[in-house]
Each structure stands twice: as structure tokens, then as C-alpha cells.
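Students often ask why inverse folding is considered easier than folding. One informal answer: many sequences map to the same fold, so there is more than one right answer. In these notes we will look at a single instance of the problem. The structure comes first.
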């Protein structure tokens, strides 16, 4: 008996075009290279783990898993989120000047998921999305995956230029503007109150969604808090406000939320059902318990005071570390400092990064943060993860790497 020769196997279908068109995160790539303990890493956007309230979070989980809600904590939950957590988040948002009900909120698996849900609900392939220049890198990835045409809005040291925004909206008819107006990633800058009002006015006049991302706003070291764009009457019916526990409690909880008008909120809930059904119940109940039993504001204030000392250490060491003619701005809070090396044609921070790695120090080159033409002389430094002593040592190593 003879058997027929096996047919040549056909190759499986290829990857989706959006995967090929959207690269990975260079920050994640840098972190993989610099994971050794001898590195001083200014590249990550990680909160300092030594300041996590491990005892308080552990107590919240213990109470949830040993109390009356233990079985419910291990069960499926509603897509919108646990009522106790949504009520606590609504109260915190209202106390900060934006009247909010629990039904205005959707709990997400980190605010990164909130951004993905917004892109799913609003953006069709080929739509134009406006972003700050430079912009939070993962937002560029999200909108790239959605098939958007991403256009950068000109910015100065204070953030978005409202006149430039108005002209771009008139020219491109975009679906939305994405902004991190407080202690922006990557620049650390904060959009002043008058510009926030102007941005809201442009959105109202031109017909535009605003996605206002606020992961760092509570980490203020000095100066007065600037109200959200969402508090402006012109923007109330067109602003999505994103929040997160990642920078003020712990990123491992993967807890974020979005506040949006009812129709858009419902669309995001449907998108979330398709993504993961709901954010883990036990994490939500533990966070609600933590908020009910712990003064989170006091904890954040303690963390912010330590971060301020680390920022000050970086500011003190930068003049000796960076070449003469480099510029930077003092951030009033957050986690990042943005620097620009002399624009004399001799400095490219992407090309210089391997030299920094040789010195066991790392930063993020500025180029990946731009939607369009990048500034090759820029770099982002995170000042919160290292001690003041480590910051001084790391910037000394950086000075060696940057010597011509």
C-alpha cells in the first residue's frame, strides 16, 4: 500500500497591517537592556517602589479576602466597575472641582486601557488625531493601532499654542485632541489656566473631542493646582477625563478610570466588554477599601515631598552634566524633566545613547515622542526612581557620555 506524498504546507496569513505599522516601545527596549543593578536608569517612567504603601494595600486585600465580600471579590463583576469604587472616585473628582456621579465613570485596567477604549469608540482608520508635540509615547502607539493619522500641535514651554490648535482643527477636521496638560509626559510642563480655557473654546467652536489625561496631577511639589480642562463650561460635553492609581498608589494594581458623556461612556463600556469583560474585581474592592480606611491624600503628599527632593537633586546636578548651551525647565511636579542639548549639529541623543549605556546610565531619546519631525537633541529624564545620591552619580556618568 502506498501513501500520497504530503502536500506542501501553506504559510499562515500574515500579521495585521496595523501591527507592522506600529513599532514597540523604545522605553521598554531600554529597560530590558538596563535591568542590571549597576545601571542608574533615568529612562523608565516608574514610580519609586520604596514609597509604596505596602502595609496599607496588603491590609486592604486581607480585609476584602477574609471579610463578607471574599467570595464576591473572586467573582465576575460588572463592566462599568464596582459600585463602591466608582462612588469613591466620583467623590474624589467632585472634591477637585468637577461634579461627578458614579454613573459618569468607567473603571479600566489602567488608564492605558481607557485610552485604547476611547480610540476604539471614536477613531476610524484614516481619521486625524491631534496630539501635543512632543507627546506621551504610548498614546502615539494607541492611535497608530487605531489607524489614525496623527498630527502634532506646536507647543512651547507652557504647552499647546491655542492659535496653532485652532488652525490645525480648521485644516484637518480631527476627531480629537489628546493632551496631558499637567506635568506632561515627556516634558514635565503644565498648561496654564488661560490656555486651558482657550483650548476648551476651540473645541466648542470647531467641534472636537478633548481627551484629557491626568496621571500625574496629584504629584504637585509647588505652585497652585490648575483646574482640569473638563471643568470649563465650553468643554463639559466633549471632554473625556482619564485618571489612574498607578502613580499615586501602585501601578501593579492596574486600576484606571475614565469620565465621559453618557453616550461615549456606553460605547467605551461595550468596547471593554470585547476587551476583557471587566477590570479584576478583587483589585477594585481592595482599592475601594483602601480609600475608605486610608488617607490617600496624605500618602501622596508624603511621596510628593520625596519626589521634590529628587527633582531638586537633578536640577542641581544638570549644569555640570549637560553641555554648555543645553536648556531645560523646572517642573512643578510629576516625574519627568525634558532637556535640549545645543542645536549646533553635533548632538543626537539617539546616537549618543549607546555611549551612555557604556557608562551604565540611561535616558530616553526625545525623537520617539514626536508624531512628526522630531528634535534629535532632546531627551527625557525621570527623576523619581533614584535617590539624590544616585542621581548625582548618574548625571556624572552622563556627563562623560556626552563629551564630544
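Output (designed amino acids):
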Amino acid at each position: 500500500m502506498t501513501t500520497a506524498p504530503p502536500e506542501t504546507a501553506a504559510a499562515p496569513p500574515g500579521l495585521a497591517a496595523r501591527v507592522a505599522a506600529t513599532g514597540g516601545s523604545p522605553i521598554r527596549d531600554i529597560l530590558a537592556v538596563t535591568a542590571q543593578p549597576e545601571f542608574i536608569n533615568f529612562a523608565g517612567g516608574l514610580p519609586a517602589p520604596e514609597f509604596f504603601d505596602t502595609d496599607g494595600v496588603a491590609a486592604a486585600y486581607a480585609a476584602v479576602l477574609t471579610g463578607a465580600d471574599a467570595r464576591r471579590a473572586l467573582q465576575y463583576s460588572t463592566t462599568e466597575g464596582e459600585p463602591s469604587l466608582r462612588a469613591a472616585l466620583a467623590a474624589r473628582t467632585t472634591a477637585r472641582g468637577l461634579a461627578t456621579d458614579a454613573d459618569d465613570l468607567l473603571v479600566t485596567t489602567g488608564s492605558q486601557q481607557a485610552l485604547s477604549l476611547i480610540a476604539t469608540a471614536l477613531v476610524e482608520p484614516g481619521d486625524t488625531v491631534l496630539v501635543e508635540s512632543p507627546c506621551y509615547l504610548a498614546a502615539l502607539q494607541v492611535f497608530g493601532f487605531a489607524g489614525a493619522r496623527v498630527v502634532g500641535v506646536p507647543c512651547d514651554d507652557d504647552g499647546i499654542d491655542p492659535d496653532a490648535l485652532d488652525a490645525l482643527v480648521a485644516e484637518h477636521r480631527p476627531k480629537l485632541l489628546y493632551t496631558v496638560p499637567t506635568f506632561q509626559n515627556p516634558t514635565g510642563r503644565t498648561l496654564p489656566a488661560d490656555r486651558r480655557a482657550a483650548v476648551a473654546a476651540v473645541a466648542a467652536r470647531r467641534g472636537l473631542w478633548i481627551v484629557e489625561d491626568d496621571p500625574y496631577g496629584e504629584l504637585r511639589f509647588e505652585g497652585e493646582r490648575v483646574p482640569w480642562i473638563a471643568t470649563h463650561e465650553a468643554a463639559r460635553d466633549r471632554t473625556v477625563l482619564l485618571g489612574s492609581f498607578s502613580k499615586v498608589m501602585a501601578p501593579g494594581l492596574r486600576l484606571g478610570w475614565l469620565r465621559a458623556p453618557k453616550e461615549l461612556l456606553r460605547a467605551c463600556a461595550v468596547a471593554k466588554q470585547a476587551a476583557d469583560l471587566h477590570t479584576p474585581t478583587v483589585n477594585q474592592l481592595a482599592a475601594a477599601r483602601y480609600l475608605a480606611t486610608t488617607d490617600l491624600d496624605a500618602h501622596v503628599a508624603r511621596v510628593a515631598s520625596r519626589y521634590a527632593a529628587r527633582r531638586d537633586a537633578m536640577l542641581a546636578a544638570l549644569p555640570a552634566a549637560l553641555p554648555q548651551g543645553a536648556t531645560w525647565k523646572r517642573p512643578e511636579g510629576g516625574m519627568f524633566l525634558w532637556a535640549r542639548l545645543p542645536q549646533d549639529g553635533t548632538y543626537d541623543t539617539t546616537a549618543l545613547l549607546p555611549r551612555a549605556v557604556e557608562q551604565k546610565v540611561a535616558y530616553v531619546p526625545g525623537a520617539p515622542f514626536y508624531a512628526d519631525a522630531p528634535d534629535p537633541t532632546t531627551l527625557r529624564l525621570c527623576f523619581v526612581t533614584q535617590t539624590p545620591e544616585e542621581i548625582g552619580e548618574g548625571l556624572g556618568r552622563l556627563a562623560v557620555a556626552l563629551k564630544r
